[in-house]
Amino acid sequence: MTMLEPRDVPPRLATGAFILNSGLGKLKADAETAEGVHGMACVAYPFLKKIEPERFTRLLAWSEIAVGGTLLAPFVPTRLAGLALTGFSSGLVGLYLRVPGMREPGSLRPTQNGIPLAKDFWMLGIGLGFLGSGARRSRAGASRCPWHRRRG
After folding, report:
1. What pLDDT shows up at residue 132?
2. Is the pTM of this model over 0.90?
3. Could you write out the three-class secondary structure of 88-116?
4. CA neighbor of 26 nearest in space, from 58, 73, 48
5. Residue 110: how many CA atoms within 13 Å on its side-chain side?
6. Secondary structure letter of residue 148 according to DSSP
7. Per the structure, how many domains does the chain have?
8. Residue 1 falls inside a structural domain
9. In contact, 34 and 56? CB cutoff 8 Å
10. Interval 15-52: pLDDT, tens
């Protein structure tokens, strides 16, 4: 297991706290809110229609709590946290891309309604960056760079 790199702490804290807070808020969702969250998700992912809105919203809330907690837990390796964040945010990016009215016609640019969902691209980018964190580099490649050359 690799140690948590100092450079990974700020994005893990920011995204983890954001996602955890969102999940905690959804745990208290009333029936009307649950129907709205579920309805939007069903537009992008029709197979979700099989799940009742309150159950879907609870499952989503616990998923957000799990992903947020994974990012906030310092003992979880960054690559594993990145895998959780990448998977979760990929689903949210799919929502942004599939729900009508979120983007300008023929563009990836968000409409006013799409701005809250456009942040999911940032989370996807952070997750992908975490997946590359700690990737092993070949000794030969590192020795060619004078700043990374190991002195022995």
Report:
1. 87
2. no
3. HHHHHHHHHHHCCCCECCCCCCECCCCHH
4. 58
5. 13
6. T
7. 1
8. no
9. yes
10. 999 999 999 999 999 999 999 999 999 999 999 999 99
Amino acid at 37: V
User: Tokens 């969902």 correspond to what residue?
Assistant: 117
For residues 67 and 55, what is the distance between their CA atoms, to the nearest angstrom? Answer: 18
Residue 115 falls in which region: left (phi positive, over 0), alpha (psi -120 to 50) or beta: alpha
* CA distances, 132 to each of 3, 103, 112, 125, 128 (Å): 15, 29, 33, 11, 7
Residue 7 pairs in a beta bridge with none
Round to whole Å and give the CA distance between 109 and 103.
6
Give per-residue pLDDT as tens, 110-149.
999 999 888 899 999 999 999 987 665 544 444 455 555 5
**Full residue range of the structural domain in which residue 47 is found:** 6-144
Whether 59 maps to a domain, the answer reads yes
Q: Is residue 151 part of a domain?
A: no
Mean pLDDT of 74-89: 96
